[in-house]
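Here is one chain, start to finish.
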Amino acid sequence: MKGKISVLYICLLVLQSCEMFESHPYDGNVSGEKNVNDKNIKLIEGECKGKTTLRFAFISDTQHWYDEVQDFVKAVNKRNDIDFVIHGGDVSEYSMTKEFLWIRDLMDGLDVPNVTLLGNHDCLATGIDVYRRVFGPENFSFLAGDTKFICLNTNSLEFDYSKTVPDLEFMKKQASDTRAAYEKTVVVMHAPPLSEQFDDARIYDFQSQIKNYKGIQFCMNGHEHGLYVTDLFEDGILYFNVSSIEKRKYLLFTLKPNNEFDYEIITS
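Its structure:
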C-alpha cells in the first residue's frame, strides 16, 4: 500500500511542477486560427472583385512593437477607404511561437482583411513551421480587382542557400496564371535585392522575371526599417521600402485606372 501511495504522490508532484512552467517558447504549438492568409485572400478577392480603384495599407517589421501595432489597427479602423492591409514580414523578433500568435491576434482586430509575408526574423528556430501553420505558404499571390499581388519569400540567407530563394519557378508560374483576367501586377517581399539577405546569384533572374509581369506597377519591401523609394535597377520599376512599425508610419497606396497610382506616408 505504501508503494502505491508513493507512486501516486510522485505523479502529483510531477503534475504540479508542470503547471509551474510555461510551455517552451519554440514548442510550435499553435492555438487559435490557422491559415490566416488563405481566409483573408478569399475575402480580399471577393470584396474587391470588379474594382478598378484599390486602396491598401502596407506595414512591416512589427517584431516586439505591440503597442504600435495596436495603434495602427485603431487608426485603420477609423477610416472607411482601405480595402486591405499587407504586412511585409518580421512578425517576430526571435521566432517564438507566442510572437506569431500575438501579432496574428492584434491584426485580427482590423476591420479589413490582411495578409502577412515571411521575414528573416521569422525564420529562426521553429519559426518557419509556425509561420506556415499560422499564415500559410511563404510564397503566395492573390487578385484584388484588376491587380495581381505576388508575395515572395526573399530571405535567402536564412535558408543557407540550400533551396532556391526566391523561388524562381513560383515566380515564372505567376506569369502564366490562368485565373480571372487582371491588368496590373504588384510584387511584395520582405528583403529587397542587394540587401544582405538576398541571394546575389538570383538577382538577374529575379528582376528579369519582374519586368515580364503584366502591367508591373512597383515592388514593396520592408526589412531595412527605413522609409524610402528607389529605382533600384534604374529600369523604371520603383521599390517602396516601408519603415518598421516602431516609427508609427505606414504606406497607403491607391491604384487607379490607366496604370496610375499614388501613395501617402501616414502616421498612426
